[in-house]
Amino acid sequence: MRLPCLAALVVSASLPLAGWSQEVAPPAHVKVSTTFTKRDASGKVETIASPSAVAVSGKQATIGVSSNDGGITFSVTPTVGPDGAIALKMDTQVKTKADPATQNPDEIRRKQKEAARQKSNMPIFHSAIPAEGLYSIEDIAGARRWLKIGRVVDGWTLKSYDEKREVLTLAQLGKVQELTLHKAIVDGLAVTYGNTTTASVKSGESTKFTTPEGVEVEVKVEVIQMTK
Is the pLDDT of residue 7 over 50? Predict the structure, then answer.
């Protein structure tokens, strides 16, 4: 009786058996810790809330914060890159109560626009005519103009427009900033504004940004190991 050679046995042992599936590494999980603060009339910093959540890389996580003055809805999509850097896409909606003595929607919009200009150091994206490639932009000096892709405003170059998301992408010295279409939604005595911000950080680091309504958001991210 002829026995198989040792080399054949080694090769056979190294091959995966039919029907066996190779183990797939679980997707990276990212712990997102946030702190929402705002200055009161005297300039004192007040912490609104410090919630946290765990998100899967490439998937959106949403955090809701309620306060006496309204509420905040914060959505973040962290994507872990092969080099360990974490790209963050952050959407913030701030709902604030309007002054009961001022229920005129036009007056509410005017006051919100003034507050946004005082708190923002970015241009404001007011409206778009995609068919003609025209975008209404207000610079930090308050001047409003119709611009096309490739034009520069406040040192930022208009790069592209996503009509579905109503987002205008600007670039400056290697940095990229997304501007959402500036619009107010009057709901009873509340006004809601949206703001989109992007950033890239490493695990354990944090980034900060301030919404046009004056809410400062600090976001810290950390890649965590999930147990099976």
Answer: no
